[in-house]
Amino acid sequence: MSFAMSSESLLDLAKSRQPADRERLLLAIADLCDTPHAGEAMKSGAIQVLLSSIFMSLVVEAERDIRHRLSEKLAAADWAPNALINVLALDDIEIARPIIAQSPVLQDSDLMRLLVEATIEHQIEVARRPHISEAVVGAILEQSEPAVLTALAGNHTAELSPKDMQDLVEASRQIAALRTPLSQHPKLTGQLAKRLYLWVGLALRKGLADRFRLDVAVLDAALAASINEAHAGHMASSSSEAVPRMTREGEREVMEQRLIDKLYSAGQLRPGYLVRALREGRLGLFVGALAMLGRFDTGHVQSAIDSDRPELLALACAAVGIDRSVFPDILEMTRQLNDGRPGGGADGARKASVAFAPVAPEVAASAFRQAARSLAA
Fold this sequence. Notes:
Order of helices and strands: HHHHHHHHHHHHHHHHHHHHHHHH
Shape: flat
Strand content: under 5%
Radius of gyration: 26 Å
Number of strands: 0
Helix content: over 70%
Largest sheet: none
Mean pLDDT: 80
């Protein structure tokens, strides 16, 4: 069958609303990807109109195995619609993996959105993607997710600057999984190898010493000194431990706010990030991000989640574009992380659904601010 005949058949299938025909249409398009000169043909005006008009609705309704097959077929296609590729990149990880790994359609902004909105598994695939740019690398380093950093350390084609390598080596002091891939990284310098030497095991120390011809005697002396310092710190009185603990807490809050500010400035702070923050157990990050998205007072958001009125949290979520169907999960995760608050039990959760009435986000935001002020009074 010629490609022209195939195109006509596709157009005929596109006119059908039968589920079976719609699935046949997706599979037919996927099969065309394997035909000679498919890319050039797919860029033609008629086919592009066809793709734009049907792809999105078809993919949303398609069975998982069909989406998986389509993902594999389109992973290397430079003609695939941007919206479709981004939908597949956010799908289940097995479907998303080939798209994230090689689709030429994905731009830096798309990859950075995945780092903000998608699961840890998706983020790991972004870090593994060949030749990711310094901008994407910077976003990964900013978020400091250990598993994603480890994937980045193993990606020898990533555009890592000397400062990026320094940050990764410094992070390996706390994240042991980073040490092996960093010790083998082609961009590791002799100076950084000396720092890495202090934190790795015996086998890796030997490899570093051989590769960079390190002065083992000097480094072992430095290692012994650091061990002695650690023991001395451990022997400090328990009364002095409160200050460092408070300092760490303050530093964490500052780092979280910096992350929120950077994401917001880059246009990457979106409602989906709120769910991700809760799933990762970072309640403070959730509060700060919700306040930033809604232009709310952070103290008001904190008061709302500490209250016995879950409808206040619902109003804030409605104001920033959270869907009604997502809110029960947000409420449950917030309660798990906040000692059962906001209270109100099941009745409170039912009342909260009223906040998602069909009103403008500005109305929900105004209602939240007014209620939060009265709560704080």
